[in-house]
Amino acid sequence: MDKQEINNGLIERLEQLMEYKSLNQRSLSKEIGFSYSTLNKYCNKKSNTIDFELIYRLASHFSDIDTNWLIQGTGEMLLTSEQPTASNENDRLSKLIDTIAFQQDTINNLHGRIKELETTNKRLETQVALYIGKQIV
């Protein structure tokens, strides 16, 4: 699953959450204290990334929403009655932060690997150009 598919899934779940809570983009942004223009950009898929701040505010504001569902699409949208909500809020947010930190580390590692491959590619292009006697522009 690529980054765009992950973002699209998150946006679909966000739209389900807004429908469930009877909110539109403007009322949701006002309720959680998040920029309407940024939220609108996400919902209209005009951004390749989604800020941690949005996820954090959603998880903090809607304690009845399962963060695993919100982030990963697993389980049900609403926490069941067997799952504690208020008493486990810190654990829930801690797990959310850990998940996001892990995903950010993965992204950073992939960016580093891309830079390494770009360097190797440039070196190989230079070697090929020297081999065939052409100059690289």
Note the topology.
Layout (H helix, E strand, L loop, with lengths): L2 H18 L4 H8 L3 H8 L8 H10 L5 H6 L16 H44 L5
Helix pairs in contact: 2-3, 4-6
- Which CATH architecture is right? Orthogonal Bundle
CATH class: Mainly Alpha
Low-confidence stretches: none
How big is the Rg?
21 Å
End-to-end separation: 36 Å
CATH topology: 434 Repressor (Amino-terminal Domain)
Beta strand %: under 5%
Q: What is the H-and-E element order?
A: HHHHHH
Helix content: 55-70%
Keywords: Coiled coil
Organism: Phocaeicola plebeius
GO molecular function: DNA binding
Protein name: Helix-turn-helix domain-containing protein
What does this structure look like?
The chain is mainly α and about 140 residues long. It has a single domain, classed as 434 Repressor (Amino-terminal Domain) (Orthogonal Bundle), CATH 1.10.260. The chain has helices at about 5-20, 25-30, 35-45, 50-60, 65-70, 90-130. Helix 2 (about 25-30) packs across helix 3 (about 35-45) and helix 4 runs antiparallel to helix 6. Keywords: Coiled coil.
